[in-house]
Amino acid sequence: MELQDKIHAFIEQGKQARFTLVAWIDSPELKVYLRRAKRFINGNKEITLEIANVSVYNRGQKTFTQFLEMVERMSPWTIYVENVLEERFQLFFQKRNYQRDPMFQEDHSYFKHTNELQSQTRRSVDEQSTNHSSRI
What we know:
The chain is of the alpha+beta class. Helices cover 36% and strands 29% of the residues. The protein has helices at 3-16, 63-74, 87-95, 116-129, and strands at 21-26, 30-41, 44-56, 78-81, 99-100, 110-112.
């Protein structure tokens, strides 16, 4: 199965999941630990696609950049990148318009809202958590 197909399958499973979903996704180029979870970002409870751990087998070939671009296109949720330790990657995410999570400044975690579906998802999660019966 191709990397894109694996990510798509994870997202589809995540759409059905009521709780946190985790998976190691492996390809010939990289191995990544993904999590579909709920997280408070700027006071809003959001569904997130979290990139928690990445191993790139051949560095310097833009493998991670290509992976991230694919995830950004595919994800209906906010993308959250956890514990970015190296300064060059912190700058990388900032240049790509990722925002630093204000709740975890010392951890250097970043997030990005990927598309308009994201704002609908945020509203949906907020409505579910406050038990409102109104529809979007």
